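Need tokens for this chain, all 133 residues.
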Amino acid sequence: MYSQNCAAQSVNEARKLMFTHGLKSLDSIPPTQNALFQHAKQALHTAGFVWKQSFSRIPEIPNPGDWGWEWNARTNQWVPYWTDCQTSARLAHCSSNAGVVACKGNCKCHRAGLHCSPLCKCEGGCTNNESEM
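Here are the structure tokens for all 133 residues:
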């Protein structure tokens, strides 16, 4: 869906591949599977209930809170609820060409004093994760 030559089987897997292989920047990758699900619920609520009943004198519209919206008490309005998943605070990743075995020297993670993660090209299986730093 996101790329004709992407072998990913899920939305989240496609996101990871696009980001780690430099195909797309973080702000241009597609939404997570959870965020996509929330967006679909919001669209169904709006089109299936609100618009469909727009000419009805007494519309029967279900609670938006059950359809991907949340009440913002500060602004007194319904706002989109985007995701149930927790995001990683650390999005540092390396694109080292040293390979899985020796991710050191030029590795952004190693220079920052961080272990490599699954977001890295080495997928966290390199020597940077073997010893305590």
